[in-house]
Amino acid sequence: MTNDTGDQRHLETLDRDLARYSNLELATAYVSRPLVGPGIALVFIVLAGLGAALFFGQTSNSMIVIVAACFGAYMALNIGANDVANNMGPAVGANALTMGGAIAIAIVFESAGALIAGGDVVSTIAKGIIAPESMGTATTFIWAMLAALLSAALWVNLATFVGAPVSTTHSVVGGVMGAGIAAAGFAAVSWPTMSKIAASWVISPVLGGAVAAFFLFVIKSRIIYQDDKIAAARKWVPVLVGIMAGAFASYLALKGLKKIMKIDLQTSLMIGAAIGVGVWLVMIPLIKKQSEGLENRNKSLKVLFGIPLVVSAALLSFAHGANDVANAVGPLAAIVQASQSGDFTQAVSIPFWVMVIGAFGISFGLFLFGPKLIRMVGGQITKLNPMRAYCVALSAAITVIVASWLGLPVSSTHIAVGGVFGVGFYREWDAERRIRKARQQIPDRANYGPEERRRRKLVRRSHFMTIIAAWLITVPAAALLSAVIFFVLNNVLG
């Protein structure tokens, strides 16, 4: 009996010890989980540096290129964490894609865009923000580009942390401007170019929002508010998908295939028109078949927009990879060229290994840190469904084409987020209009007070103000940070 009691106590003690170890393991896993992403990111940055050492070889400037490659990898990680959310957020918010599916599609198409159609030449550093010859020496130029790269990456990292989607291209532009001013004074900056970029802060979101709101108006008036929604959808959805196909064909021909062939605006529009008409004809029987048996209600319409929305998200990712990655790794390419040849005044050719760092960095950044911004853009600014998200995606392609036609600089980030705002504000206006109309028909209908009207706003004003503020201070913040980093590098290492 005594032995049985002793064994029982021993087992109870063992169970308590095992429970403590289990709790310790759970606590360790809980604490270490947030460190997994940064740990993998750090490994990638180190590998990028080792890759640069392997490709660049043992030369007098090899250490500078290795450091620059690490900064470039860090920048690419931040692009993946922040910029790509604008392409995938609407599709995820509309439940057309799962988070895992969105990340997988974005990784494939962003990488393909960067490696297949990525810009092979940045004709002037960061779109002609500074005059390279004003830098004086190659060493000064290299410090300026290092400062620009690091400052842009740090700013985008901070924006991602606070949940604000910002333009990575504008961050690089601000970084280059700040380092240029610190190195050679205000005269080194091309102020006409900077004024165009400042104008894009307003043009991009307003144009993107207006185009998205227009197409939501078309969908609501021609399909949703019709008595027979399914019959209206059979007529209009093929037209809308055809417009989307044509817009993306023109967009990709104009912006995404520069490395393969040079296509002017008129030719790209002709290509888009031909493809758009072809897709419209193909979609007529497909939509008719897909709509068979659907109930005459709004929920049924979501099915018809699901696949076009997924395709548009993939194409946006391809075009983003082809354009924005080159802008982000441009300073790294400039450092490589200046270190190899000492020439920093000519057009900069982007080596393939630099584009690989950009492509893989975007993929890792999106996988590790992207979900936060994807959720914010997709669901926290305003509620999206497949029709609304489709309008956002379509506005991104059309706005870039219109801006190219007008010769206006635009930001893909600002267009996409502006499209989300445009859809939300149009819904607010439309809801108010319908309420006023109903109140005219039924005079004694309840009238909402100011507090209730604020509660019924369909766009979250806190996110709106945070994002606008982040957009406005991106260039000056990155410029100031870059100037400080340049002074440190130039005085400590120069």
From TrEMBL:
Give UniProt keywords alphabetically: Membrane, Phosphate transport, Transmembrane, Transmembrane helix, Transport
State the Gene Ontology BP annotations.
Answer: phosphate ion transmembrane transport
Q: Which family does this protein fall into? A: Belongs to the inorganic phosphate transporter (PiT) (TC 2.A.20) family.
A single MF term (Gene Ontology) = phosphate transmembrane transporter activity
Q: Kindly list the residue ranges recorded as spanning the membrane.
A: 35-56, 63-81, 141-164, 171-191, 197-219, 231-253, 265-283, 303-322, 350-369, 389-406, 412-429, 464-489
Question: Can you say where in the cell this protein is located?
Answer: Membrane
Q: Give the matching InterPro entries.
A: Phos_transporter (IPR001204)
> How does this chain sit within the bilayer?
Multi-pass membrane protein
Q: Name one GO cellular component term.
A: membrane
Q: What is a single Pfam family found in this protein's UniProt entry?
A: PHO4
The keyword Transmembrane helix is annotated on this UniProt entry: yes
Name the record gives this protein: Phosphate transporter
